[in-house]
Design a protein that fits this description.
Helices cover 25% and strands 28% of the residues. The protein has 349 residues and is of the alpha+beta class.
């Protein structure tokens, strides 16, 4: 299949932290509406799109729209902008990065993100911990007066990064989880006959507690839940014992993470689907973190759920990296799974 990098680039580069997903949602609605039978946006901002089946199970497929970022929390007397983190960054990779401050007028201002102290003596930047992101500030290159005139408390700050092809990979901010929104759209474009009703949900506020999936799943009331998200991939030179997934190894079928334990029947079915269609894949256990499946599986009286993830290096940094083959193989795997999802036996009776 041809890799539609322009569509992924559009999704990855648009700004949208938790609670501010408007621009992302506009793209998702625009591209998804012609591909489904029904589409609506709920009160929290989730996009809920349904592709009718011919009877049987209802499958909810979720991917989140929000990226990690910041809100303006204070403007110092010298014009420096202080930040409130929204989601979890690795603080060691943030100093000296460029950011965009998005104003209520609809525009954006480019600034430099830096540490409150000069990065000397050597080793100081290594002391910036995730719980000390308040040590960072944004310099807009403006006078304090001009900064206060153009920036208000609570405005969104995102990383100033574009999506680029690097070798066999794509590198960008916010591949977590825009790459999964891209996969969701490509699945809808390639999906053939299916019996199950498929409800695609682009969720909000996943990075701050899987909040959107919680309300959406309650309304959708699915028989099966599937989250599509990223999973950390091993860094070259890292300890292989600690490697959760391998870049280029195919989509990761999650056994468990910090938010849920996958339904073993579904995980086995996804694995069997991959083997039947000769799709490279791997199994993953995440000792931390979570996905929308953590919310879906607890809705109503409980929903058998699983997660299928794209291996991603440097997750929660400004340069997240995913292999193009892993992305295309994830599209193939989830599509094949959905086409036969009606055959899944999720009853415990």
């Amino acid at each position: 299949m041809e890799f539609n990098i322009a569509s992924l680039k559009r999704l990855a580069e648009v700004p949208g932290i938790a609670g501010h997903e408007d621009a992302v949602r506009s793209i998702v609605v625009e591209e998804m509406r012609p591909l489904v039978n029904d589409l609506r946006v709920d009160a929290l901002g989730n996009v809920i799109a349904t592709k009718y089946g011919s009877g049987g199970l209802r499958v909810m497929l979720a991917a989140h729209m929000d990226e990690i970022g910041f809100l303006v929390s204070h403007i110092d007397d010298d014009g420096r902008i202080r930040l409130q983190p929204v989601g979890g960054f690795d603080a060691r990779n943030l100093a000296a990065q460029r950011v965009l401050v998005h104003t209520l007028s609809g525009g954006s201002l480019r600034g430099v993100l830096h540490a409150s102290r000069d990065p000397h003596p050597p080793g100081y930047l290594g002391e910036i911990r995730a719980d000390r992101l308040t040590d960072l500030f944004v310099d807009l290159g403006l006078t304090p007066e001009a900064t206060r005139q153009r920036v208000a408390i609570g405005e969104m700050v995102t990383m100033d990064r574009t999506l680029e092809e690097v070798g066999d990979t794509v590198v960008s901010k916010s591949l977590d989880d825009r790459v999964s929104l891209f996969i969701m759209l490509e699945i809808l474009r390639s999906l053939s006959e299916h019996v199950a009703e498929i409800v695609m949900v682009a969720t909000v506020q996943e990075e701050v507690g899987i909040r959107g999936a919680t309300t959406a799943a309650f309304v959708v009331d699915p028989d099966i839940g599937v989250a599509v998200d990223i999973a950390p991939a091993g860094i070259p030179g890292g300890n292989p014992v600690e490697q959760i997934t391998r870049l280029g190894g195919g989509p990761a079928i999650t056994v468990m993470d910090g938010s849920f334990i996958a339904d073993s029947r579904l995980a086995h079915r996804v694995r069997a689907t991959a083997e039947r269609h000769q799709i490279p894949h791997q199994l993953a256990i995440l000792p931390f973190g979570g996905t929308d499946a953590g919310a879906i599986h607890l809705t109503q009286s409980g929903v058998p759920s699983t997660t299928i993830s794209i291996p991603t290096r440097y997750a929660h940094t400004v340069n997240e990296m995913a292999h193009i083959d892993d992305i295309t193989n994830t599209i193939m795997l989830v599509t094949r799974f959905l086409e036969s999802a009606h055959e899944a036996d999720v009853s415990l009776a």
